[in-house]
């Protein structure tokens, strides 16, 4: 087993951990990044399946994600627009497909009025509560102890409107049933994207993709860090006191002044902390969990839907596949659709055999786009819930009452251990942009602490 001495040990080589390590190294501190997987990127993963490049994990960039956009520029990565020309498809509660353009589904005037009213209410709450400290709002506990599902139905008797609004947060973002998380958690989701209106506008929230794939962000940062990144090195034990930490992985031990836990909160318990973390941390982590989603890619010889005047964008709150988008790669002559099967719908799909599940999912996509959707040349399901070093998607959220109760402490260091992931972000929460923001913020906090301790002048360049 090799032994290293560094100023900072970073646990997790996703966008947040690598951003923090990159900032710290540029500031003159020595770093070691320990990653359990055999790859970098965390919940971003660009893989080739049966000859098709697929974005298994996070992939989209929206115009407000300035931290990510700046990093893409630094790394020399280009973006391209998601295909969205033509009409979208809405599957109504009766199972009828309707073509439409614009952001609002083709519903009755009464339902449209209710949807717009609910969006307005949520926009107002998002603006009032904000993304950075939602737990500090005077109404935080009130909004955090009622489920999003129940609140929607308190506001409106229109079931179609409630289901459609719920779709954007429950299925589309938190990937949990709307009865399992609070209004405050939904408002945080909206505020982190700038507004609820942004959240329901797929042209905004799913604007662009990265040429070569989003994982390339982490690949290029890791290349800058070189041998400071160790793969296949899950940290089993983290010994800590006020003077520093010792991270014990399978083939390497790192002694450091500071540690960054750059993994989702549900994985903190995979590490044995010696001594144990404070009670407040133990309690808080038990109230945070990731959702469940199956991300489905279906690749076709051609993007057949475009010839029919369709964008490939489809929504149906009652469908097994609640969202479908054109996910064709830059410069690819083939057509790719991506669909999402979330929360309890994913539970139902996992009760089927793989063959039955594939048939049911493709049938649901065909309900939107016709029988040509039944015959892809490449089909792939990504199930982050079964990933050993993730165990869910897309990011952690609190159960009822958890955000107002524990949110103020989620970034509090323990000794010299700092917490950094998109799960803990305000702006950019749940997105790569949030991971990058957290990485920058965590590095800045460590640099401030080191400066306050007079350590920056004596950093151990070339420690080994």
From TrEMBL:
Residue stretches making up the Amine oxidase domain: 16-447
Keyword Oxidoreductase annotated: yes
Classification via InterPro entries: Amino_oxidase (IPR002937), FAD/NAD-bd_sf (IPR036188), Flavin_amine_oxidase (IPR001613), Flavin_MAO (IPR050703)
Keyword terms of this UniProt record: Oxidoreductase
Cofactor(s) this protein requires: FAD
Family: Belongs to the flavin monoamine oxidase family.
PANTHER family reported in the protein's UniProt record: AMINE OXIDASE, AMINE OXIDASE [FLAVIN-CONTAINING] B
Protein's UniProt name: FAD-dependent oxidoreductase
Organism this protein belongs to: Arthrobacter sulfonylureivorans
């Amino acid at each position: 087993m090799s032994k290293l001495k560094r100023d900072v040990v970073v646990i997790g080589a996703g966008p947040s951990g690598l951003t923090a390590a990159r900032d710290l190294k540029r500031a003159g501190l020595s770093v070691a990044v320990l990653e359990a997987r055999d790859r970098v990127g965390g919940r971003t993963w660009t893989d080739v399946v049966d000859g098709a490049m697929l974005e298994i994990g996070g992939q989209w960039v929206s115009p407000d994600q300035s931290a990510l956009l700046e990093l893409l520029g630094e790394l020399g990565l280009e973006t391209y627009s998601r295909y969205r020309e033509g009409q979208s498809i809405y599957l109504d509660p009766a199972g009828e497909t309707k073509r439409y353009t614009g952001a609002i589904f083709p519903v009755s005037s009464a339902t449209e009025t209710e949807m717009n009213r609910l969006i307005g209410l949520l926009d107002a709450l998002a603006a009032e509560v904000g993304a950075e400290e939602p737990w500090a709002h005077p109404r935080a506990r009130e909004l955090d102890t009622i489920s999003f599902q129940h609140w929607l139905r308190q506001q409106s008797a229109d079931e179609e409107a409630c289901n459609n609004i719920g779709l954007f947060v429950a299925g589309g973002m938190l990937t949990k049933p709307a009865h399992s998380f609070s209004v405050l958690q939904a408002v945080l989701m909206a505020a982190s994207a700038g507004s609820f209106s942004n959240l329901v506008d797929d042209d905004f929230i799913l604007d662009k993709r990265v040429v070569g794939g989003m994982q390339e962000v982490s690949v290029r940062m890791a290349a800058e860090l070189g041998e400071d990144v160790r793969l296949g090195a899950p940290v089993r034990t983290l010994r800590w006191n006020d003077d520093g930490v010792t991270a014990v992985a399978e083939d390497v031990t790192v002694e450091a002044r500071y540690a960054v836990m750059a993994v989702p909160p549900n994985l903190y318990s995979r590490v044995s902390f010696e001594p144990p973390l404070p009670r407040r941390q133990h309690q808080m982590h038990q109230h945070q969990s990731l959702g469940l989603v199956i991300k489905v890619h279906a690749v076709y010889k051609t993007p057949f839907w475009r010839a029919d005047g369709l964008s490939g964008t489809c929504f149906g709150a009652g469908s097994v596949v609640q969202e479908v988008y054109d996910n064709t790669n830059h410069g690819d002559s083939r057509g790719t659709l991506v669909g999402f099967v979330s929360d309890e719908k994913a539970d139902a799909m996992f009760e089927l055999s793989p063959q039955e599940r594939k048939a049911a999912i493709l049938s649901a996509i065909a309900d939107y786009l016709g029988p040509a959707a039944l015959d892809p040349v490449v089909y792939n399901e990504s199930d982050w819930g079964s990933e050993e070093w993730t165990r869910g998607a897309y990011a952690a959220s609190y159960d009822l009452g958890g955000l107002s109760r524990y949110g103020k402490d989620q970034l509090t260091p323990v000794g010299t251990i700092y917490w950094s992931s998109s799960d803990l972000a305000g702006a950019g929460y749940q997105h790569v942009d949030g991971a990058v923001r957290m990485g920058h913020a965590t590095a800045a906090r460590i640099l401030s602490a080191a400066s306050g301790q007079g350590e920056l002048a004596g950093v151990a360049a070339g420690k080994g």
